Amino acid sequence: MFDQQELQEIEALKKRYEEPKAALLPVLWMIQRKAGYIDEVGMDMAARLCEVPVSHVRGVVTFYTMYFDEPMGRFHVQVCTNVSCMLMGGEKLYREMKERLGIGHRERSEDGMFSLEEVECMGACGGAPMIAINEMFYEKVTSEEADQIISHVRERNEIPRPKFVQQMPDLSVEANQ
Predict the structure, then answer these.
(1) From CA 162, how far away is CA 131, in angstroms rounded?
(2) How many helices (H) and strands (E) does the chain have?
(3) What is the CATH topology of the domain spanning 75-156?
(4) Is domain 4-63 annotated with CATH 2.20.28?
(5) Which of 9, 17, 62, 139 has its CA 20 to 30 A from that of 28?
(6) pLDDT tens, 104-128?
(7) For 145-174, how does the pLDDT look when each residue is reduced to its tens digit (9 = 90+)?
(8) pLDDT at 4 over 90
(9) What angle do CA 88, 93, 96 make, to 5 degrees?
């Protein structure tokens, strides 16, 4: 699965920690980046490289939502529906996204372009509702913005940059007069 240079990177990574198992998360990232997901072969390799049981690797892969144990789309869309996002329209966004993409939770479009996942929390409650595409995060997303983002991805085969979202109110004297 890995070429000689990648194996050297993994060895260098393992040397940064007291125990090889501490390198498991980045090794899993490398496997997923290369294969698109982490199958049994990938889990076996990670277990050997990090000197842990395969059951430990499987536990990590199935615990963290950032790892996929089945193929996902090239553009993996996540919609938060946890409390803050739900109160700000996250469930509505998720329903609309299912309709726009024609797929459900952890499903992949026929062309392999999109997959969709309803997630519990992406840690941006102040920016609710929130969606992510691969590793690009969008806060305070409206239905119209979500539609524009998906259209951009479809048309250009790239993920657009998110808009700037001010997290804190302007507390300056001038702004509050």
Answers:
(1) 10
(2) 7, 5
(3) Glutaredoxin (3.40.30)
(4) no
(5) 139
(6) 999 999 999 999 999 988 888 889 9
(7) 999 999 999 999 999 999 876 666 667 777
(8) yes
(9) 150
